[in-house]
Amino acid sequence: MRIVLLGPPGAGKGTQASKIVGKFGIPHISTGDILRKAIADETLLGKQAGEYIKKGLLVPDDLVIAMVKSRLDMSDCENGFLLDGFPRTVSQAESLDEYMQKKGIQLDAALNIEVDKDMLIERFTGRRVCEQCGATYNVKFSLPKEPGVCDKCKGKLIIREDDKLETVKKRLEVYETSTAPLIDYYKRKNLLVNIDGSRSIDDVFKDIVDQLKKVN
Ligand code: AP5
Fold it and tell me: Which GO terms describe its biological process (predicted)?
């Protein structure tokens, strides 16, 4: 199963990705998570990417494309993968197509999680992430068992730096101009599967599983 996960910031891509990879046994490749780890580790990539992420802008294509290709070259991706947050521009999508063509492999689906803007803002406001393992919670919709503590690793839950309202607005703007065109891109390739992301986490997941059974 080779899947890309599309959708605006805050739509629930990370939340659903964790559940999908658990069910289908494929690696979860989140460009946001890889970049945040590079920032925390103070690598060269992290230093370059941090400036863009802080401002709610996309990290330049060349950096992200090289990063994703080297991740896809790893042996655990041989039988499938879930890309979360990549591609995010038409140029990234074309590079992914080129890479897959060279390897003789194809995408099975581009899942597009749809959520309206007011609901996205509400979700952002309540989002908390584990500073250790990156697991995602929400003070309104997806509470940890113990307040402020990650269920999985007992790490501290924090607010992501790019979840400040001003940065969120910029990210939504960037999504509209740079990433939304991918919906048409994958529609033309007959790979687009729209998912109503406004329902509960479990209902959205059930729909995703049903849709993936149809394409596989
Ligand atoms: P990235 O980490 O990919 O962020 P994003 O796409 O903006 O998405 P988010 O992680 O904010 O949201 P999500 O859709 O995963 O929602 P979540 O599951 O957390 O990227 C961050 C930055 O890195 C970018 O801005 C960019 O700078 C850079 N970057 C990354 N990839 C790049 C690329 N390819 N090219 C260039 N730059 C790149 O859910 C949100 C909240 O809602 C949570 O609190 C969750 O608990 C809650 N929730 C989820 N689902 C539901 C539901 N159904 N009902 C109620 N609550 C829900």
Answer: AMP salvage
